[in-house]
């Protein structure tokens, strides 16, 4: 055979092979790059959870807060022009995670796949959501660990629950969203038993941003799990002065030890991350200011300079991420007053 013809045939064969590989695996899987943008909105729904992900024209809602947050979900989707939810993940059937989803379903025109750890539940708010989904011709899908789907160029993979328990919180769906070199880990209300089961699987739990489990309770985000995730940012969704004492002081200390920047909806309002898959930026609805509120001033209007924890006998700066719950709080005008009352400085904010 003529060498020139042979050379042409070899070249054509190589090109055919490359095209076949692109079709089979996708160009993205070869380069590991993305060309669009992912936005992750952590909504301020008080002592509850909700996040809206917008990626390359597609949308994903993870939880929807309490029933009273329905109007917030409705208006937030309207203000961001979201008329279709390509996917909804209800991490577990407690009201503070599924109650407000009804507001989102009341606004959108279309709904894609809806995931939940259970297809049926006795919970009123879960059943209300499931009933509304029938209007869209959609039923609840129960995923398995390892199942994944695409959201634009992002990949969403389910990492938990590894083993079903009697405790609803332990059965929370845990998912990781990968977008280029940036990733987000959503943990619902998963606590230490569920975290340890995930660690045993050997799956890659590392993430750039961690949505801290169970609103920052003491029972979530153990050291081993936190080290595996190794987040640059930790987002806590909780209500100011909530009755549960969230976030727990010990948890905040663990996050600080790991070097994660802590963001809280009770202080920052809505928290929005934006990434092109390489660079990550974050904006908050309101600045986490060191300014004290009106009820934290004396009769003469003079602001308190330090916040004390009655239980631990530690004093903090007003902008410390480890502030105690309101019922466990005392305020001081000066450093001398705090020390004179027998309080010692917080190791997180190191007040002076």
How would you summarize the topology of this molecule?
Blueprint: H1 3-25, H2 27-31, E1 38-42, E2 50-55, E3 58-64, H3 70-79, E4 84-89, H4 95-98, H5 101-107, E5 110-115, H6 124-133, E6 140-141, E7 148-151, E8 154-160, E9 174-179, E10 182-186, H7 192-201, E11 209-211, H8 223-229, E12 233-236, H9 249-258, E13 261-264, H10 265-268, E14 271-275, E15 280-284, E16 306-309, E17 314-316, E18 329-332, H11 335-340, E19 344-345
Parallel strand pairs: 3-4, 4-5, 5-6, 10-11, 11-12, 12-13, 17-19
Antiparallel strand pairs: 1-2, 1-14, 2-3, 7-8, 8-9, 9-10, 14-15, 16-17, 16-18
Helix pairs in contact: 3-5, 5-6
What features would you highlight for this structure?
2 domains; alpha/beta; Metallo-beta-lactamase, Chain A; 11 helices; globular; 352 residues; single chain
Question: Can you describe what's shown?
Answer:
This protein is α/β, with parallel strands linked by helices and 352 residues long. The chain folds into 2 domains: 37-284, Ribonuclease Z/Hydroxyacylglutathione hydrolase-like (Metallo-beta-lactamase, Chain A), CATH 3.60.15; 294-345, no CATH class. It is built from 11 helices and 19 strands. It has helices at residues 3-25, 27-31, 70-79, 95-98, 101-107, 124-133, 192-201, 223-229, 249-258, 265-268, 335-340; strands at residues 38-42, 50-55, 58-64, 84-89, 110-115, 140-141, 148-151, 154-160, 174-179, 182-186, 209-211, 233-236, 261-264, 271-275, 280-284, 306-309, 314-316, 329-332, 344-345. The strands form 3 sheets. An 8-stranded mixed β-sheet has the order 6-5-4-3-2-1-14-15. A 7-stranded mixed β-sheet has the order 7-8-9-10-11-12-13. The chain has a 4-stranded mixed β-sheet with strand order 18-16-17-19. Helix 7 (192-201) links the parallel strand 10 (182-186) and strand 11. Helix 3 crosses helix 5. The radius of gyration is 24 Å and the shape is globular. The model is unreliable at 8-31 and 288-301 (pLDDT under 50).
């Amino acid at each position: 055979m003529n060498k020139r013809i042979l050379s042409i045939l070899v070249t054509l064969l190589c090109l055919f092979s490359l095209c076949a590989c692109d079709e089979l695996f996708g160009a993205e899987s070869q380069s590991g790059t993305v060309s669009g943008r992912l936005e992750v909105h952590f909504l301020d729904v008080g002592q509850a959870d909700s996040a809206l992900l917008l990626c390359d024209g597609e949308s994903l809602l993870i939880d929807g807060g309490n029933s009273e947050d329905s109007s917030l979900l409705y208006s937030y989707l309207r203000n961001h022009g979201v008329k279709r939810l390509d996917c909804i993940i209800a991490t577990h059937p407690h009201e503070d995670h599924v109650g407000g989803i009804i507001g989102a379903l009341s606004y959108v025109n279309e709904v894609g796949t809806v995931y939940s750890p259970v297809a049926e539940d006795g919970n009123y708010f879960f059943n209300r959501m499931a009933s509304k989904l029938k209007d869209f011709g959609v039923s609840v899908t129960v995923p398995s660990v390892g199942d994944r789907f695409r959201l634009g160029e992002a990949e969403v993979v389910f990492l938990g629950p590894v083993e079903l328990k009697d405790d609803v919180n332990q059965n929370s769906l845990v998912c990781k969203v990968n977008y280029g070199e940036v990733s987000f880990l959503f943990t619902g209300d998963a606590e230490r038993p569920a975290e340890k089961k995930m660690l045993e699987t050997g799956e890659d739990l590392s993430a750039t941003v961690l949505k801290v489990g169970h609103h920052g309770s003491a029972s979530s985000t153990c050291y081993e799990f936190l080290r595996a995730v190794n987040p640059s940012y930790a987002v806590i969704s909780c209500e100011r002065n909530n009755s549960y004492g969230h976030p727990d002081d010990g948890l905040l200390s663990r996050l600080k030890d790991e070097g994660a920047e802590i963001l809280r909806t009770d202080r920052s309002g809505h928290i929005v991350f934006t990434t092109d898959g390489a660079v990550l930026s974050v904006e908050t609805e309101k600045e986490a200011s060191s300014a004290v509120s009106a009820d934290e001033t004396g009769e003469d209007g003079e602001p308190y300079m330090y916040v004390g924890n009655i239980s631990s006998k530690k004093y903090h700066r007003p902008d410390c991420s480890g502030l105690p719950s309101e019922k466990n709080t005392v305020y001081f005008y000066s450093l001398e007053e705090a020390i004179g009352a027998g309080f010692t400085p917080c190791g997180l904010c190191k007040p002076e």
